[in-house]
Fold:
Amino acid sequence: MKRKHVIVTGGSRGLGLKMVEGLLADGYRVSTCSRSKTDAIEQLRSSEYGGRLFWQECSIGDEGQADDFVKAAVAAAGDDGLYGLVNNAGVAQAGILASFPNVESERILRINLLGAIEMARAAAQAMLRQNTGGRIVNISSIIGSRGYNGMAAYSASKAGMDGMSRALARELGRRQITVNSLAPGYVETEMSSTLTAAQLSQIANRTPLGRLATEQDILDVLRFLLSDASRMVTGQVILVDGGISC
Ligand SMILES: NC(=O)c1ccc[n+]([C@@H]2O[C@H](COP(=O)([O-])OP(=O)(O)OC[C@H]3O[C@@H](n4cnc5c(N)ncnc54)[C@H](OP(=O)(O)O)[C@@H]3O)[C@@H](O)[C@H]2O)c1
Structure:
């Protein structure tokens, strides 16, 4: 039986893991990567979904790694080919720019933006070869359009992803490959664990829906963007933030 194969980068924990679990439960074949393997990935591989899950170590942003990973994932998927890419892997580091090391800005941009562009390039090559359409979803952030104190490089990387979504949507549209950004607000994961309790409650208070997003909130919108229901949606930045940026 043919299955839709989706690559989710950075699936070892946090949002990426939630997406991997959710898409496997929905019946997709899923490939994921991270720099280190977690127990959660091991457990999934020995679960009932294990036969549809491919994991390989990959350091996104490092020369040639995206190409190698996509090739290995597509080869492992066999006749299932490649239906979707979710550019989820990312890093964040806060710091006032005036004292923020350039090398850290370079690292954030290389992983979050250049790495995502390289992954999109490798996935687009596979999708174009198949000529059966596809989906690319870039996990950006509301910080990409709104900014945030102490997050200049991260904000630039996410704004860059949104620009990539718009440009690639134009480039790939005639081949029925949609490209969108899914931009979460603040989600409770390891990445946002550096925020203090006071900051988290301030964010919740300023949010019209009165709470931070959950991983489930993000997964549900991803499901829509990967589904046939979103076939006419491309080049968009979909904010999932409880209305904080409205
Ligand atoms: N959490 C939030 O509030 C929030 C809000 C808006 C947007 N986002 C975005 O959502 C995405 C996921 O965030 P998260 O909170 O789930 O982060 P997280 O808990 O820190 O997980 C990040 C994942 O990406 C992987 N990763 C990081 N750098 C990598 C690299 N160079 N190559 C391969 N894998 C890499 C990590 O594994 P390894 O470290 O083992 O490589 C891990 O699996 C990110 O793009 C983030 O910017 C998060």
Observations:
- The domain at 5-234 is CATH 3.40.50.720 (Rossmann fold).
- The first strand starts at residue 5 and ends at 9.
